[in-house]
Amino acid sequence: MRIRGEALELAFRIVLSCPCDVTAEQERRVFGILQSVQTRELVAYEAVLEVFG
What we know:
Helices cover 62% and strands 11% of the residues. By secondary structure, it is mainly alpha-helical. Strands 1-2 form a two-stranded antiparallel ribbon.
């Protein structure tokens, strides 16, 4: 599945604002992915799942 960068940013905001356990490494990887994509760019969602899987 592919997701647009703007939708990816929204998904990350939701995940990072929840009271679940997110490690510093996961947070660093999340922001790395967000910084590497353009707003309208399509991103493979598998990269997102790898951060938390």
